[in-house]
């Protein structure tokens, strides 16, 4: 297949020989996480469509949300610092002996709460999707609905 060495011509040859059925063996089927994300998006859009929830509200209160996130993240980092000292998740943790460096760099490489909840993945991958979505809905609200009211 062409994705192995980057050759577009090999991709076309592969598709000519195997048709689109050959792609079924290459691409994975959607997992439960993908279906959960689709269901969340459909619910989000449905709540907006029926007027139950306006996602532009997130944009309107972004200053308050950022203030709460900054304060909450400071408290959360102190919690992770203490957790790294008292109950590290794995052997890839340690202290440099300097409180400021340990607080800045972190005590653990992959901090976890419990067996399955990875804190690093949760904090790095979740919040910006909501913020970007609310920006889009606010632009839609301002351009479409506000123009129709005037």
Question: Which properties best describe this structure?
Answer:
mainly alpha; 8 helices; two-stranded antiparallel ribbon; 3% strand
Number of helices: 8
Q: How would you characterize the largest beta sheet? A: 2 strands, antiparallel
Q: What's the N-to-C terminus distance?
A: 56 Å
Can you count the beta strands? Answer: 2
The neighbouring-strand order within the major sheet is 1-2
- SSE arrangement, N to C: HHHHHHEEHH
Our estimate of the beta-strand percent is under 5%
Give start-end ranges of low-pLDDT stretches.
Answer: none
**C-alpha-based Rg, rounded:** 23 Å
Mean pLDDT: 79
Percent of residues in helices comes to 55-70%
Q: Outline, from the CA principal axes?
A: flat
Structure class? mainly alpha
Subcellular location: Endoplasmic reticulum membrane
InterPro entries: ERG24_DHCR-like (IPR001171), Sterol_reductase_CS (IPR018083)
Keywords: Cholesterol biosynthesis, Cholesterol metabolism, Endoplasmic reticulum, Lipid biosynthesis, Lipid metabolism, Membrane, NADP, Oxidoreductase, Steroid biosynthesis, Steroid metabolism, Sterol biosynthesis, Sterol metabolism, Transmembrane, Transmembrane helix
EC number: 1.3.1.21
Please provide a written account of the structure.
The protein is mainly alpha-helical. Helices cover 68% and strands 3% of the residues. The protein contains eight helices and two strands, in the order ααααααββαα. The chain has a two-stranded antiparallel sheet. It is flat. The model has no long low-confidence stretch (mean pLDDT 79).
